[in-house]
């Protein structure tokens, strides 16, 4: 894994977390239980601290960083979608940050909120709990329903199981040259949220 000390700071990673070998973790980073960090993610605690609490996931090609002296916190079950960027923000418990969203400095996202894919959350914005925010710049457009939270929570629970699955079965291997006749099927019990 690409895990680096920076100055006096050595990352702290709970043994149940899974950090993909193509992810990078640098410096003052604290990673809790059942956290998933996908390939290409960059978690750079060189100028400040980054805390990923239990059950978080930081998916492929995400970046987490900050200005000097700032602490970035992802509360329990924060879910950071593919390609999102978090810079100097506080992400609340059970929040979903959508794919390719950008969340800037001094942003506070309240618990159980959703930031839409490709949204830009400008510096200093405070998003109340259970809010849906979308756009560039992001605007709160409605409150999150119980159904939306249940859908989000179920998706994050899949990611909370993924670290153990990755530790148990993800190994570098040579590919097959053709599809085997008894190739297994994937489960189909989780779908995009229906409006």
Short description:
The protein is mainly beta. The chain has 1 helix and 20 strands.
Secondary structure layout plus pairing:
Layout: E1 2-4, E2 12-13, E3 18-19, E4 24-31, E5 36-37, E6 42-52, E7 57-58, E8 63-65, E9 71-74, E10 79-80, E11 85-87, E12 90-91, E13 96-97, E14 102-103, E15 108-109, E16 114-115, E17 120-121, E18 126-127, E19 131-135, E20 138-143, H1 146-169
How would you describe this structure to a colleague?
The protein is built from one helix and 20 strands. With 195 residues, it is mainly beta. Strands 1, 2, 4, 6, 8, 9, 11, 12, 14, 15, 17 and 18 form a twelve-stranded parallel β-sheet that branches. Strands 3-5-7-10-13-16-19-20 form an eight-stranded mixed β-sheet. A hairpin with a 2-residue loop joins strand 19 (131-135) and strand 20 (138-143). The model has no long low-confidence stretch (mean pLDDT 96).
Query: Count the helices. How many?
Result: 1
Mean pLDDT metric: 96
Largest sheet: 12 strands, parallel
CATH topology: UDP N-Acetylglucosamine Acyltransferase, domain 1
Tell me the number of strands. 20
Helical residue percent band: 10-25%
CATH architectural designation: 3 Solenoid
User: Terminal Cα separation, in Å?
Assistant: 40 Å
Low-pLDDT parts are: none
The shape is globular
What sequence of helices (H) and strands (E) makes up the elements?
Answer: EEEEEEEEEEEEEEEEEEEEH
CATH level-four homologous superfamily name:
Hexapeptide repeat proteins
Strand content: 25-35%
* Rg result: 17 Å
- Class in CATH? Mainly Beta
């Amino acid at each position: 894994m690409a895990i680096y000390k920076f100055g006096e700071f050595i990352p702290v990673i709970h043994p149940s977390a899974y950090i993909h070998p193509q992810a990078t973790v640098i410096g003052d980073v604290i990673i809790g239980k059942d956290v998933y960090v996908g390939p290409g993610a960059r978690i750079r605690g060189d100028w400040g601290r980054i805390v990923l609490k239990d059950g978080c996931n930081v998916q492929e090609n995400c970046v987490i960083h900050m200005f000097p002296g700032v602490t970035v916190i992802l509360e329990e079950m924060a879910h950071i979608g593919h390609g999102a960027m978090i810079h100097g923000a506080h992400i609340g418990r059970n929040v979903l940050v959508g794919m390719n969203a950008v969340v800037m400095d001094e942003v506070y996202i309240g618990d159980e909120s959703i930031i839409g894919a490709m949204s830009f959350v400008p510096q200093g914005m405070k998003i109340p709990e259970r809010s849906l925010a979308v756009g560039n710049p992001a605007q709160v457009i409605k409150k999150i329903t119980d159904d939306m939270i249940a859908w989000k929570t179920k998706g994050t629970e899949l990611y909370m199981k993924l670290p153990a699955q990755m530790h148990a079965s993800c190994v570098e291997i040579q590919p097959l040259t053709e599809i085997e006749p008894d190739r297994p099927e994937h489960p189909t019990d989780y779908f995009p949220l229906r409006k």
